[in-house]
Each structure stands twice: as structure tokens, then as C-alpha cells.
Design brief:
303 residues; 35% helix; alpha/beta; seven-stranded mixed sheet; 9 strands
């Protein structure tokens, strides 16, 4: 009886028991509540197929969809001092950095790359909101300067994708100093006559909005992105009034002249190609290549 209970029954149960389903196969849309299969969501660039809500997307995923064939080369960014203020709140700053690096697999909150988009060479920068809220620290300032210098050297347009909660408090005044530093980097591009295009994604707030994120020659935003300096809740608590519906969202800012376009993520690459080629005075992009005509062998008279 013990043999049956202890060996046979567990063996049978293990053969017919339900297999555990990995937790990351399905994602729930925060807007409409639809459960989305991970492959379907990835194929749709992290946009809900039911309500078109634009979810967060990592810089590497964005670059894979942006560059021709998903091929790009990373640009090295100078490393700043690791913990200049020896800051500590509930955790030490280096501990928070290690946790963010482990969860995201990235070194910092910004990725710089170069490649071709629609056969047009560009330099691109993207912020990662999942890395400490995409906060603007010294590394972010160094990244933008490195990208601007590379774009100036190669005479290429610069495209920036912003997603940030503002300055990084663990770096204090050194973080705020990145606002004038990045503004000078943008001016470097303008002096060289190179286009600087900004794509504002959800959310873009704080000192980022007060500096490089609003200095583009063309300002494009993803639908319903929150774009502001101080958030709506802070403003309501300060002025003690109810704000208009959709205040500080991309569509509201477009209606009030702060943006040039609000573009769906699936159409963004095509629009960037068009804008870049217009600003650089190039001919329209080729949608597809036709095969070369076949060469026919000369006919000979049969004898």
C-alpha cells in the first residue's frame, strides 16, 4: 500500500497534471484591460491591438524597429563619476544603480546608436523609462553630447526619443547642470546645419521637458503621451482648480501649438524618413526595389 501511495500515485499525477504557464506570456492593457499575447504585442510594437494604447518600449526594441533591418551600431558614451555626492535615502545610490542594471540589462538610462533609416544615415538616442524612471543624470548628459558630436562629425541628422521623469535626485545639482550642457549640444547641431528631431513618448516630464526635449526642429509625439514640466496633480493642488480634460497630453499640446505632429508608433518610422529626407533636401525614399531586367540572349537564325 505504501508503494502505491508513495510512488505509483505521484507518478500518475505528474504525467497528467497541468503544466505551469509562464507568467510573461500575457500582458494586460492598463487602459482597456485586454489580455494581449506577448508575440502579438511585440509584433504590434507594444501597442494594444484593442484600444491603441501605447505601452512602454525599450530603446533596443525601438531601434530594432526603427533602423533598416534592425541593424545599428552603439556609440560609446564617456563614463561619469559613479556616486559623486555619496547620496543615500532608503538605499545607497550605487545599490539602486545595480538594481536598475540587473532589471533592465542596460548600463544606464540612455542608449545611443547610429545606422540607416530608409537608407538615410542618422544618429539616434533613446531613453529607457524602466531605468530609474529615465531620470536625467550625468550619463544622460554625456550621451547627448556624444551623440551630437558624432552627428556633427559624420554630418548626420540626430533623432531623440525622450521618456523621463525628470532630473535624477541622487546627483543633485550635477543632474540639473545637464540642462545647459545638453542645450549647448543641441546648439552645436544647429550651428552645423543638421536636423534635430525629437519624438516625445509617455511620459516626458521635468527638466528633460525644460531642455533638450523641446528644442527640436520638428517635435513629434506618440498618442496620449504626458508631456509637461510639473504634473497635472501638482498643478491642481497648487492652483486648487480642476484642469481641462486631456491637459498636458500630446493631443492637447498639438492643438495649442507646442507640437508639430502626433503620430502612431506603427507609422512613426515612415514619417521620420519623410521628415529627415525633406530637411536634408534629399529625394523621396524608395519604397521598394524593382529587380533588374533580364538580359535576353540574341536570337540567331537557325540553319
Amino acid at each position: 500500500m505504501n508503494w502505491i501511495t508513495n510512488y505509483v500515485r505521484p507518478k500518475i499525477n505528474s504525467l497528467f497534471s497541468r503544466r505551469e504557464v509562464p507568467e510573461n506570456l500575457w500582458t494586460k492593457c492598463s487602459e482597456c484591460g485586454t489580455m494581449l499575447f506577448h508575440r502579438e504585442l511585440a509584433d504590434n510594437l507594444n501597442v494594444c491591438t484593442n484600444c491603441d494604447h501605447h505601452m512602454a518600449i525599450t530603446p533596443r526594441e525601438r531601434f530594432a524597429a526603427l533602423f533598416d533591418g534592425g541593424i545599428y551600431a552603439e556609440i560609446k558614451v564617456p563614463e561619469p563619476v559613479a556616486d559623486p555626492l555619496h547620496f543615500r535615502d532608503q538605499k545607497k545610490y550605487p545599490e539602486r544603480m545595480r538594481a536598475a542594471q540587473k532589471s533592465t540589462g542596460e548600463k544606464e538610462a540612455m542608449l545611443v546608436a547610429e545606422g540607416e533609416i530608409g537608407r538615410t544615415p542618422i544618429v539616434a538616442i533613446a531613453q529607457d523609462f524602466s531605468f530609474m524612471g529615465g531620470s536625467m543624470g550625468m550619463y544622460v548628459g554625456n550621451a547627448i553630447i556624444a551623440a551630437a558630436e558624432r552627428a556633427t562629425k559624420l554630418k548626420r541628422p540626430l533623432v531623440l526619443f525622450s521618456a523621463a521623469g525628470g532630473a535624477r535626485m541622487q546627483e543633485g545639482i550635477l543632474s540639473l547642470m545637464q540642462m545647459p550642457r545638453t542645450t549647448v549640444a543641441v546648439q552645436m547641431l544647429k550651428d552645423a546645419g543638421l536636423p534635430y528631431i525629437v519624438v516625445l513618448t509617455h511620459p516626458t516630464t521635468g527638466g528633460v521637458t525644460a531642455s533638450y526635449a523641446m528644442l527640436g526642429d520638428v517635435q513629434i509625439a506618440e498618442p496620449n503621451a504626458l508631456i509637461c514640466f510639473a504634473g497635472p496633480r501638482v498643478i491642481e493642488q497648487t492652483i486648487r482648480e480642476k484642469l481641462p480634460e486631456g491637459f498636458q497630453r500630446a493631443e492637447y499640446l498639438l492643438d495649442h501649438g507646442m507640437l508639430d505632429r502626433v503620430t502612431h508608433r506603427r507609422k512613426l518610422r515612415e514619417e521620420l524618413v519623410t521628415v529627415i529626407r525633406m530637411l536634408t533636401r534629399q529625394s523621396p525614399a524608395i519604397k521598394g526595389d524593382l529587380p533588374a531586367p533580364r538580359s535576353e540572349a540574341p536570337k540567331t537564325d537557325a540553319k
